[in-house]
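Form 7-S
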Amino acid sequence: MAAGYGDLLRTRYAGRLLAGTLVGRLPNATAALCIVLLTRSQGGSYSLAGSLGALYGLGTAVGQPLLGRIVDRYGQPRVMLPAAVLSAAGMALFALVGPDPLPVACAAMAVAGLFTPPLEGGLRALWPGVLRSEDRLHAAYALDAAAQELLFTIGPVLVTGLVAAASEAAAVLWIAAVGVLGALGVVTARPSREWRAEPRAADWLGPLRAPGLRALIACLFFVGVALGSIAVAAVAYGDVHGGGMVDGYLLSALGLGALIGGVTYGARAPAAGTPERRLRLLTVGLAVCYAPLALVPGVVAMTVLAGLAGVFLAPVLACAFVVVDRHAPSGTVTEAFSWLVTAIGVGASLGTAAAGPAAQFGGVTAGFAVAAGGGFAALAVLVATSRFLASPNLKTELEKDRIGGVEPGFSTTHQA
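Output:
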């Protein structure tokens, strides 16, 4: 297992691109916490903090596919670095003025969210040209998905440490600056500088014109619902079981399970059958493992169940990345991957909104039932749309040769 990932990361540029993308995404991973801490430190309410966070999230949901489309047209450096600087400027403005005056704070959050660079989609567009091996591409997608769990685990700890050492505003400024440095590390790498998208059809729908991709986006929307609802339900469970760090135990176990699942999945050779079939099987595991959370046993047992619930998350995402690769129309790969980010983000927001009333009026069991419902809804989408997913936009023989090992050169039009 370690040898396989070591070989992947020793591939020229692979480690740099992965690390730069993770660092560049740090502002997005910590934005919600930063917004709450800074708003509360200056006397703002939780409702105000939540509204500003929602504005940031909405901006990100809108901006990711739009910026992804521009990247596909003009390349990565010309879009991602300016976007990262503008996003950081929005965060810096918020750090300087805080929640008052409110119109300025709202404008800052909208800019910070809207211009969040589509580093996730950009990295996944680069992987095939960098790795040029189907097995290593499979491992890269899995490592990519698993590494996100580290990002969302380490990020909050880093923010709270910066707040303790300096201030809430200083933490926001530091995180924003680090995000720009991460993006800079990516766009100055040769694969990013020389990557070019394939020619694309003049169609305003872009990747959304592919039925299989629309089905996948709908599936991951419901995966997002499950993720967003678990965060709220875990807090409600913690309140019932004495508060303290109980909710943190559950969410940490969920992240650890996803990390283990992703690393294990990527270390194995792809199973027989198409990626679309594997995705359905993995989503079965995801839904089935979410369901026992509604039993809400004691803290130790619940923590174990939370870890089990996370095991299939990263493999589902990793397999979904491969499916995107097979279905995205020519010249739209960055935008296609960015739509996945939007789908999960919007789904998580809806899941958060649904789990709150569910837990309040139906108890903790009802809160976790929302998560299980999201998992089974994702599976239902895949089953109902299997005929669309069965007809991917397969690559040409030339593209297959390039992925299979023929040196393409980063300046070719080859992408995911």
